[in-house]
Amino acid sequence: MNTGDNCNRRMEEGFSNQNDEESCCSDRETKKQDLNCIVEQNDESHEEKSVTESTRKKKTRTVLELQSDSQDYCSEIEGTDRVKRRKSLVREAAASGQGQQRRLWVKDRSNAWWDECSRPDYPESEFKKAFRMSRSTFELICEELNAVVAKEDTTLRNAIPVKQRVAVCIWRLATGEPLRLVSKRFGLGISTCHKLVLEVCAAIRNVLMPKYLQWPNDDGLRGIKQEYETTSGIPNVVGSMYTTHIPIIAPKISVAAYFNKRHTDRNQKTSYSITVQGVVDPNGVFTDVCIGWPGSMTDEQVLEKSALFQKAKNGGLLDGVWIVGGSGYPLMDWVLVPYKQQNLTWTQHAFNEKIGEIQRVSRKAFGRLKGRWRCLQKRTEVKLQDLPVVLGACCVLHNICEMKKEGIEPELEIEVFDDETVPEDGIKSVSSSNARDSIAHNLLHHRFAGTSFL
């Protein structure tokens, strides 16, 4: 009984378990089908969204292309209208101006001051005060430079007249005024004024220097020797030589070479300079110049670098004649300098006095040079490479003024102070030393010297 019941019970449990498994499988199949439906629905929804997005982008692109085409079309129309209006305005301006074109791109500046100075009735004294020379001398310079300085008018603008070009240069040299002030005074641009100064200075040096600053011919040398001998008693003197320094802004290259080593009671500041060596006749006219060597060089070194030294050494230019120099130069066969040792004799003192009279001629000439052209007294804005041209022009203009007897106002003339470094080897030849002793003896013997000591 018990055994049969157990068997029946197991059979019922087996059938029950089989039914449960079949039910579970059926549920899983149903779920799979549901999931597949959901995935298919999602795929369909994604495809629909992609199609919608693509359509929207195409529509946006089409709208943008239409807008761009519309803008291009409008721009073409506006550009055409603008060109037409501009051409119409040009035709109207040409018709109303009768062929004259307005200088619309040139800044309007006032040149009233120069217009006033250039009037024929402008006072001569005021003109000379402004330009350091009379109107006739100024016009002579303009006439000499006309062929080189003059420019032609263009379709864009009228050329600056020759007189105004020369006036800009001379005013700048005479006053040392900054370019921005020169620009306002003459109604020109700053860069234009700077260019004019360099162009006119170059023209003066190239055109006028061969005519107004040159070594004298034989007749000229005879006259110079006679004048110097009349005033000093020293024969065969053909020039008075001096070297001055022109202050500059410290250069960026080789700055030590331009350092002025001459620190004295009058010169205690650190300064940089270039040198100007000049030989002058009895009237203070330069007959030779050497410009541009660095300020650290001594007078002797500058002399040895000069063309005058090379001509005297190789060409015999100065055979049998003297150029008088100061204590900074050595005694040479053609350079006559004062006695430099202490405890001088009566004869040597007397000789030095007469040498000093000749040397003062060149000192005063340099004083007038710097007084006329005030740009030489201050550190200039001119570039170092352009300075020799500017300084050469100043020397030429000085000569023209001296030759034309253009006096200088006393308050403008200055006294130059260029302290001389005495060379270690002050005597270059025994023959020159003997010649100097002979000149000193003859001066005292013929009572040309020594009278101030009696």
TrEMBL record:
Its cofactor is a divalent metal cation. Its main location: nucleus. Residues 25-34, 43-55 have a biased composition (Basic and acidic residues). Residues 1-58 are annotated as: Disordered. GO terms for cellular component: nucleus. InterPro entries: HARBI1-like (IPR045249), HARBI1_dom (IPR027806). One of its GO terms (molecular function) is hydrolase activity. It is found in: Nucleus. Keywords: Hydrolase, Metal-binding, Nuclease, Nucleus. Pfam families: DDE_Tnp_4. The keyword Nuclease applies. Residues 242-399 form the DDE Tnp4 domain. PANTHER family: OS05G0593000 PROTEIN, PTHR22930. Belongs to the HARBI1 family. This is RNA-binding family protein isoform 1.
